[in-house]
Design a protein that fits this description.
Strand content: under 5%
Helix content: 55-70%
Order of helices and strands: HHHH
Largest sheet: none
Structural class: mainly alpha
Number of strands: 0
Radius of gyration: 17 Å
Shape: globular
């Protein structure tokens, strides 16, 4: 099954590779994010989070965001609304 893979996978494992145009790449990254999140949810393995982060960074780059820019956005949201460390489960009224 053809899918978006890390850059060195064809070099390491063979097979046929081609470069995606921007529209294909954007769609493939979105599908890859779903795949990687599902793998983490299924396994619970922390290593899968590294794959999720790699895809997030690639998606951010499509928006001309550096990892530092993405972290600044994350921090701003956390400052405004908090993070998830408090383990708060909310039921709206």
């Amino acid at each position: 099954m053809a899918k978006l893979v890390r850059d060195r996978i064809p070099e390491l494992f063979g097979g046929t590779a081609r470069l995606l145009n921007e529209e294909e790449y954007r769609a493939a990254l979105r599908a890859k994010l779903e795949e990687e999140v599902t793998e983490y949810l299924d396994s619970g393995e922390p290593e899968e989070l590294a794959d999720v982060l790699e895809v997030l960074r690639a998606l951010a780059a499509l928006h001309d965001l550096t990892p530092e820019d993405l972290e600044a956005l994350r921090r701003a949201k956390a400052d405004a609304r908090g993070g998830f460390t408090g383990r708060v489960w909310w039921t709206p009224t």
